[in-house]
Amino acid sequence: MTEGSTIDASPGDLSQHIIGAVIEARSAQQPLYINAGGSKRHLVGRDCNARVLDVSGHTGIVEYHPGELVITARAGTLLTRLTDALHEHGQMLSFDPPLFDGKATLGGTLACNLSGPARPWSGSVRDMVLGVQLINGKGELLNFGGKVIKNVAGYDVSRLQAGALGTLGVLSEISLKVLPRYEHCLSLSYEMTAQEAVDTMNQRAAQPKPLQGAFWVDGRLHLRLAGAMDAVEHTARQWGGEVLGASDTSWCDLRDMSLPFFAGDAPLWRFSIKATAPANTALGNTLIDWCGAQRWVRGDHDSAVLRETAAAGEGHVTLFRGGDRSSEVRSTLSAVEQRLQQRLKHSFDPDGILNPGRLYSWL
Question: Of 7, 229, 241, 322, which residue is 20 to 30 A from 152 by alpha carbon distance?
Fold first, then answer.
């Protein structure tokens, strides 16, 4: 692959097929559920039982400019395809997204706004989006943003797609900023309580060190150092702890939610709260990630109690997986926020045919 090369660029008839399917569905007032890899159908949002619009064939890297640190790909492209292409040039998706056994796609990752353990330090998928092409609920092919890092003109509609769960349009192409791979990575592990881990995470994060991951589960704190070899090795000597070998898969397992903590059918709740909020061991089985800012809880809990807990930590809680996905899985919005969401939805999808109810029952 050469500088400025274009690969996998044959568009075929899939864009027109998708546009035609949306126009037909709008005419028939028939809701659609947008699906590619299917790895996140029962995650993040509510269940959507509409007719499936399969976009899994809309794949391929359209443009990749290693020297510009920019890649553009169709939304149905598997993340593994992107990571392989980037690896050839010593680059990476800095937001460390979950691959979900190789089924995760670029469009689904952006739609669900999913980022991995490096998110507090290297940014989210939302932060890396430069531009998108999407098909709105009228069947119009629209372009927003650009394919260069300096493009900042106009409203940032591209980033609105992060977490919209496909309710604003069918993503067609996405341009992302990418970053160079780390020269060296090393993991440290310590035995400590949840509260000790929260305190330690925040102390370590305040230091000018190459920290790129911090999570606690089952009585152990894990820290990931990544960057220049000298800086990583020097920090490891200063911080001590057990050095984990190259065979350790903890970070990949955390990223892909395949740690033993995530196994089973018990409801999975995600807290997004202040990093320094006290550890709440009364909630039972817990995993603390993102230096304390993201916390996972398993089990059947009263959602009202969890929302009070989240509010005390200046954040919110979501029923991420399992449980009753026909009811609301997100925190209640204010009347003003609801109106803004509804106006956005009406602008992009006036007939409400794209992923109806996936984000909220009233949207």
Answer: 7
Res. 145 pLDDT band, cuts 50 70 90: confident
Opening angle at CA 114, ends 110 and 119, nearest 5: 115
Lowest mean pLDDT, pick from 7-21, 76-90, 175-189: 7-21
pLDDT class for 15, splitting at 50, 70, 90? confident
3-class secondary structure for the chain? CCCCCCCCCCCCCHHHHHHHHHHHHHHHCCCEEEECCCCCCCECCCCCCCEEEECCCCCCEEEEEHHHCEEEEECCCEHHHHHHHHHCCCEECCCCCCCCCCCCEHHHHHHHCCCCCCHHHHCCHHHHEEEEEEECCCCCEEEEECCCCCCCCCCCHHHHCCCCCCCCCEEEEEEEECEECCCEEEEEEEECCHHHHHHHHHHHHCCCCCEEEEEEECCEEEEEEEECHHHHHHHHHHHCCEEECCCCCHHHHHHCCCCHHHCCCCCEEEEECCCCCCCCHHHCCEEEEHHHCEEEEECCCCHHHHHHHHHHCCCEEEEEECCCCCCCCCCCCCHHHHHHHHHHHHHHCCCCCECCCCCCCCC
d(CA 172, CA 126): 16
pLDDT at 297: 97
The per-residue pLDDT for range 243-281, each reduced to its tens digit, is: 998 778 999 999 999 999 999 999 999 999 999 999 988
User: HSE of 152 in the Cβ direction (CA atoms, 13 Å)?
Assistant: 3
Q: Is the pTM of this model over 0.85?
A: yes
